[in-house]
Amino acid sequence: MPIRTVYEAKIEHMQILDEDGNLDKKLAKGTLTDNQVIHLYEQMRICRELDEVAFKLQRSGRMGTYPQNKGQEANAVGSALAMKKGTDWIVPAYRENAALFMHGLPMHYVLVYWMGDERGSKMPDGVNITPLSVPIGTHMLHATGIAWAHKIRKDKDAAVITYFGDGATSEGDFHGAMNFAATQQVPLVFYCQNNQWAISVPRERQMKSETVAQKALAYGIPTMQVDGNDIFAVYKATKEARARAVKGGGPTFIEGVTYRLGDHTTADDARRYRDPKEVEAWVAKDPLIRTRLYLESVGKWDDKKQKTLEEQAKKITAEVVRTAEEIEAPHASDMFDSMYAELPPQLIKQRETMRTSSIGQNPEQAGLKASPERV
Amino acid sequence: MTTLPMIESKIHPAVGEWELPEFVAEHELPSREGDRIIQYREALREAMSHEMRNDERVFLIGEEVAEYNGAYKVSQGMLDEFGPKRIIDSPISENGFAGMCIGAAMAGLRPIVEFMSWSFSLVAADPILNNAPKMLYMSGGQWGCPIVFRGNDGAGGQLGSTHSWCVEGMFSNVPGLKMAIPSNPYDAKGLLATAIRDPDPVFFLESERMLGDKAHVPEEQYYIPFGRARKTREGDACTLVSWGRPANFCLDAAEKLAEDGIECDVLDMRTIRPLDMDAIVDSLKKTNRVVVVDQSWPFGSVASEVVSQICEHAFDHLDHQPVRVNTRDVPTPYAKGLEYEYLPNPERIAEAVRGVVNA
Question: How many Cα atoms sit within 13 Å of A309 on the Cβ side?
Fold first, then answer.
């Protein structure tokens, strides 16, 4: 018997807006209106401003470690616009701030979170976003479960999008999530922001597959690669993925090819391991540059508008920082809140005696009284 | 630009309503005496099936739970009654289905996750220890995680070291979870029913060695509150504290000791988190002696915790140092005779009590 080919595959790459601002009109048809492009451009610019401010806050000791989004904003805004705000769910990692803001998260929540306050993860009513997930890949399973719950409850017209990086696709959680999502055909969009670097390990050393997108083939999940710095391509791919999801067609995988222009986090210095020429080449592919070039080419943008936007971005971020910093720090005894739906007696006792060395005993017992300076 | 104040702590609406059952005193629970004799595994099944009939958010997922009726036949017949959307055969990926069920719980379902063995839950450590018990805390009180992880725990079946894990010592270290370890069919049903209704993540530890144990179990659903130990024998010479399978060994030992006139107070803790220290202290006031029996390794075990708390809460009531009977500090041996000697057994327990009482 001859050897037969039983499986063949290809990965398509979609780019609609190139780095010089040229638009493929045929592919762009039915995607973004110019007004939407303006809206997304503004969102990206404001998010970039917040990113810069957050960096300075960290450097001046006013905030903890922070991961900059710089360079990857098109992935967030293009996909967020394609998802249905208030109906769909976003299950984020930590480098898609603009998507969260577009789906209703007040901007200062993100700063509150990175300033080290769990309350920054407490979503306002109607905001369908789960807390930022810093462990790599973990949340992809949660996203699969949330999407699956939608399916079981027959929540029509609701889909879920989860964001993660190229590095996360090396985790077992990625495999578990992809396999379940596919076998259960849940309404989910896997959005991989391939920013080329897992902290200091480049993509080529993380995996031998030539694209991240092809990993989805093994799970039987429709997949494609898009230029992640191109809001048109990101929007179009996500829109199609969402349509498939709500029609019962199961999950879709999107690899957004992008680049982390900043460090991994403020605790990192990427200059130690990245070739400056590589960074320079990607600076030219910055999504903000090409979106602005496009808007200028269609007569929808000029220097005056740019100046107004920049002023507005500064004003908004200043207000956001002020709001975040004005929030009263939690009281020490708040650490016992939110432990269980109802606080058990042992923890009530610990809270009552927390100024002593007691871990729940009777503080009158010898040696367990609080020293006078702690009472 | 309008800024919003921080919102008040509340469970996210997606998590949905939860209502704990009304708990009654131990003597008001349905009788433990009767002739409706069923197995431990059937008691578990009855608890799950009852909750599933009353709450469509509840489902069961795990390896072999559906078509195969469960690797240990706990879920026998449940696929027929509830169908494949609620009794779900998962791929072999504990990390995968445990993590996914956390998402499902966050979105309002009430998953029961069956680990064929708690030994296999080790590959799911991230979701079960790093996500489920912290979800409520890390979301500032917003996302509850009403989920039951259940399966076989502990050695005794000659399954070798990798399949004989006793996870309570290690896992109960983590705040935010609850842990129930029933020792008999009656408690298995009443505690699992409570676990499914509980709004927090519950680790429910069964035992492959006890699934065939038989006893009278009432047909009606009843709910045993967490944190309430049960006194299974009265005595004044020594308090025996245990949970799960060794709680039965304590009764065997107590019976043997009674032949020599040594009467033990035997406490079956039933849940480890929360832990009913009041019951232990009350008993100690009478006996002034205690032996804690735990089928996990001695270093940093639940027995260690119980002994610590006894010292903290009841030091003045002790006439003898607290004594522990744990497994030996080695991996679970495969050979039958070695495994028996490795585990707490009635002989070792009786020996420990004699040492404490005769000192």
Answer: 20
For A349, the domain range is 334-374
Residue A176 at interface with chain B, using a CB cutoff of 8 Å = yes
Residue A123 lies in a domain: yes
A130 contact residues in B (CB cutoff 8 A): 106, 139, 143
Helix ranges (DSSP H) in chain B: 40-54, 78-82, 94-106, 125, 135-138, 168-171, 185-197, 245-259, 277-287, 302-314, 336-342, 346-357
CA separation for the pair B132, B126 (Å, rounded):
9
Residues A150 and A250 in one domain: yes
Residues on chain A touching B13 (C-beta within 8 angstroms) = 125
Note the pTM of the prediction, 2 decimals. 0.93
Domains by residue range for chain B, with CATH:
26-216 (3.40.50.970), 230-357 (3.40.50.920)
Task: Count the domains in chain A.
Answer: 2
Residue A284 domain-assigned (yes or no):
yes
The predicted structure's pLDDT at residue A366: 60
Same domain? A285 vs A355: no
Q: Predicted ipTM?
A: 0.88
What pLDDT score does B1 carry?
40
Cβ contact A204:A173 at 8 Å? no
Q: Please indicate, yes or no, if residue A255 is contained in any of the structural domains.
A: yes
Query: pLDDT tens-digit profile of B151-202?
Result: 999 998 899 999 999 999 999 999 999 999 999 999 999 999 999 999 999 9
pLDDT tens, A70-86?
999 999 999 999 999 99
Same domain? A278 vs A340: no
Contact: A146, B107; criterion CB under 8 Å? yes
A158 lies within 8 A of chain B by CB: no
CA triple B27-B32-B35, angle to 5 deg: 150
Residues ≥6 apart with Cβ < 8 Å to B92: B63
Tokens 């009674």, residue located: B258
- Report the alpha-carbon distance of residue B348 to residue B344 in Å, rounded: 6
Outline where chain A has alpha helix (H). 25-28, 34-59, 73-82, 97-102, 107-114, 138-152, 172-184, 203-206, 231-246, 276-283, 287-297, 303-326, 345-352
Query: For position A202, which CATH number holds?
Result: 3.40.50.970
Q: Is residue A121 part of a domain?
A: yes
